[in-house]
Amino acid sequence: MIYARRVYVLVGVAVGLQMACGPLRSRTPQPKGQATVVLLPESDGSVGRATVSNPNGNVELVTPRASTRVVPGLAPEVVKEMSEADVMRLFGDAIGAQPPAPAHFTLYFEFDSDELTAESRVLVGEVQQSVKGYPAPQVAVVGHTDTTGDATANIGLGLRRAEVVRMRLIEAGVDRSSIVVTSHGEATPLIPTADNVNEPKNRRVDITVR
Amino acid sequence: MKARQHWLAAIGLLLLAAPAFAQQPSPAGRIKVVSGSAFIVRSGGTIPAEVGQTVFESDGLRTGDDGRIGITLDDDTRVSLGPSSEVRLNSFRYAPAQGSVGLAMSFLRGIAVYVSGQIAKLAPDSIRLETPSAIVGVRGTSLALHVVSE
């Protein structure tokens, strides 16, 4: 009972603080569950697209820092542009906690072989350098094949290619425990083709460092 | 007759066991950034968050008033929270070779930044970002969200 009362006091303080100096620092109390959604530009400067909807209506966010506020039970409000300064003031803490953007590498192979092309062999060092920039790094190594030959055999060939890359990465100094190897065989080609097509761009290993 | 009863019993046992299998959570990502007080919310309890910990499908993330946390999911989606914030991962599937991908998250309170990953490229309609007052659909997008708590 005493414990329950204490919890109530704590909740009361939290509500008071939220109203007095909550992230939006609004002078009027804001209804619980009210959401503000802001579309942020991508790191390359492009802008995606988002739809904010509920049973009462919907709005589209399509321009940099387009924002809408949604009061529970009401339709999303008319879209406004939030200033860069306000984005940083309101969301700076969350933006500052963003993990580094994952990096992608593609290594290519000779026909029906687990031998890397000469150009791709050079990339192994770049991957190893990249891994150093990540906290608790994960290196996903996914083997792929073109559609030549049997789909089941191609799972195996994709896996052999991925294993070759794993060994190269370990030789280059990447911690083996951070590497996970899988094979998609011919299931997810870079260039979609008919069956039994010899396509060099599909004979690859995709590496994601995150 | 006897054989039929055995079959029914077997089917009944399978039905009973199915939810237990379904509840096995699968890994969804990893914690990359932590400062101040930050927690994983798992099966009703909280675990202090540390860089390198695995985040599972159906885990939540919660920060105290001095806390921040950032995670990267296995499809490259990134989510980070400022202080006094909470999100919950409702479902995460990333098996592109099997054509099975999807992400559902709830933004419960505080401030968060969401940066979309591969799922948004492969099947944007399979992403569901919920807030208490609206649902957000994305097309290859970075978003900032603020949800007023009680």
Describe the structure.
- The complex is a heterodimer of chains A (210) and B (150).
- With 210 residues, chain A is α+β, with helices and mostly antiparallel strands.
- In chain A, 33% of the residues lie in helices and 23% in strands.
- Chain A contains 4 helices and 9 strands.
- In chain A, the strands form 3 sheets. Chain A has a 4-stranded mixed β-sheet. Chain A has a 3-stranded antiparallel β-sheet with strand order 1-4-5, with no helix packed on it.
- The N terminus of chain A is likely disordered.
- Chain B has 150 residues and is of the alpha+beta class.
- Chain B is 17% helix and 51% strand.
- In chain B, strands 1, 2, 3, 4, 5, 6, 7, 8, 9, 10, 11 and 12 form a 12-stranded mixed β-sheet that branches.
- Chain B is globular.
- Chain B starts with a helix and ends with a strand.
Q: What percent of residues of chain B are in strands? A: over 45%
How many strand elements of chain A?
9
- What is the helix content of chain A? 25-40%
Morphology of chain B: globular
> Taking all residues together, what is the mean pLDDT of chain B?
89
Largest chain interface and its two residue counts? A-B, 59 and 53 residues
Class from helix and strand fractions of chain B: alpha+beta
Span of the ends, CA to CA of chain B: 60 Å
Task: Give the beta-strand count of chain B.
Answer: 12
List the topology elements.
The complex is a heterodimer of chains A (210) and B (150).
Chain A: H1 2-21, E1 35-40, E2 49-54, E3 57-61, E4 66-70, E5 80-81, H2 84-96, E6 103-108, H3 118-131, E7 139-144, H4 151-172, E8 179-185, E9 204-209
Parallel strand pairs in A: 7-8
Antiparallel strand pairs in A: 1-4, 2-3, 4-5, 6-9, 7-9
Helix pairs in contact in A: 3-4
Chain B: H1 2-22, E1 27-35, E2 38-42, E3 45-48, E4 54-56, E5 60-63, E6 68-73, E7 78-81, E8 86-95, E9 100-115, H2 118-122, E10 127-130, E11 135-139, E12 142-147
Parallel strand pairs in B: 9-10
Antiparallel strand pairs in B: 1-4, 1-6, 2-3, 2-5, 5-8, 6-7, 7-9, 8-9, 9-12, 10-11
